[in-house]
Amino acid sequence: MSRVTKISAAAVSLAVLAVAGTAVAEANRGNDNDWPYAQHSARAFTLAAVGDIACEPDDDENAGTPTALKCGSPTLGGMSAEFATAKQATGMHPDAVALLGDEQYQVGKLTDFEQSFDQAWGGLKMLERPAPGNHEYYSYAKKGDNEAGQNGNGYFSYFNGHDQSGAPTTQGQAGDDTADNQGWYSYNLGNWHIVSLNAECDSDEFKHDCSTTDNGLLGQETQWLSKDLAANDRPCTIAYWHQPTFSSTTAATATVPASAPGAGSVEGAAADAWWKLLYQHHATLILNGHEHAYARLRPMNPAGQSDPAHGIPEFIVGSGGEALDTLAGTPGNWANPNVVTAQAGAFGVMKLTLKSHSYSWDYQPVLPGPGFDSSALQYSDSGSGTCK
């Protein structure tokens, strides 16, 4: 159960967890202040969360990519934006970093990760707990581009490591990379159980099978999630994946309103089954990226209906640096009536402070987006909630 109360979040000084495989090993704690080797109280943990981060590097390998789609384009956040959000996340002194997909554009080649994402976010790599996005799996053939999909190869090679030939290591911090598991995993921070999922079912690796009930890869992942949640003994649960089930930037249509499960995305529609499992097991929060904006949605049931007593709040944090979208509607008149607050004028990272039976969030943008001035930085959203 999750209850949300709007308040101002207080700054909290926290320790670091060294993350390996599917578990988190707690570091020794004392009185030092030199993060990331600091030793503090374990009463709370900081989780930084963001997705949609790194522009495609403008190098020889990407000579065929239109200039407008690469770092340096005036319509993208570019390197300055990803460095700004990385600095913001580092300043939070996080215990872990939840990456919400589309870490690297346009198709997530290993060389792109090395030449762009790693340049800004590489200093936090030991703390990063990623989920993949469509740009790590699918081909990209828009706006004059024509790049083959990587089916997660660059993503797993970067986060899990690779052999001398460049083949990804089959196990690592991004989860398993095997025929039966494409990087879904869970880990714990104190009283919090945290689940990272792969929603990229319309890819070659998933055989373009977005059913959660057959024997396909997404069906196997859904079975795994059911077992993982049933075995969890922590009172608080966060789940995250890339495409949101309920939208803040997809305008309502005659057939699929923005508040309907899976608006604008076959992956978001498939994740409706995950919402049902998470709701059944009283999950506390759901985090997504994909939509290049920040939005907080009120606690909802799996049908997308407001449910203050038992619903799950959804946070969309797709403001990591690559670009910004246009929100559907205006404050007080959002296309999705469950959107409480949103912004798409600046880049930023969300800070979650996780206590034994409660949490607080704090979102403040750090760099205006293209076409916006410093007034976009006046936005902020903070508050708290409980879990039982």
Protein architecture, described:
It is a single chain. The protein has about 400 residues and is an alpha/beta fold. The protein has one domain: Metallo-dependent phosphatases (Purple Acid Phosphatase, chain A, domain 2), CATH 3.60.21. The protein is built from seven helices and 20 strands. The strands form five sheets. Strands 1-20-18-17-4-5-6 form a seven-stranded mixed β-sheet, with no helix packed on it. A seven-stranded mixed β-sheet has the order 7-8-9-10-12-11-15, with no helix packed on it. The protein is globular. About 55% of the residues are buried.
In short:
By secondary structure, the chain is of the alpha/beta class.
Number of helices: 7
Question: What percent strand?
Answer: 15-25%
Share of helix among residues?
10-25%
Shape: globular
- Strand tally is 20
Main β-sheet, spatial strand arrangement: 1-20-18-17-4-5-6
The H-and-E topology, N to C, reads as: EEEEHEHEHHEEHEHHEEEEEEEEEEE
Topology:
Layout: E1 2-5, E2 17-20, E3 23-26, E4 45-50, H1 78-91, E5 96-100, H2 110-121, E6 128-131, H3 134-137, H4 153-160, E7 185-189, E8 192-196, H5 217-231, E9 236-240, H6 266-270, H7 272-280, E10 285-288, E11 294-300, E12 312-317, E13 329-330, E14 333-334, E15 339-343, E16 346-347, E17 350-354, E18 358-363, E19 367-368, E20 381-387
Parallel strand pairs: 4-5, 5-6, 8-9, 9-10, 10-12
Antiparallel strand pairs: 1-20, 2-3, 4-17, 7-8, 11-12, 11-15, 13-14, 16-19, 17-18, 18-20
Helix pairs in contact: 1-2, 2-4, 5-7
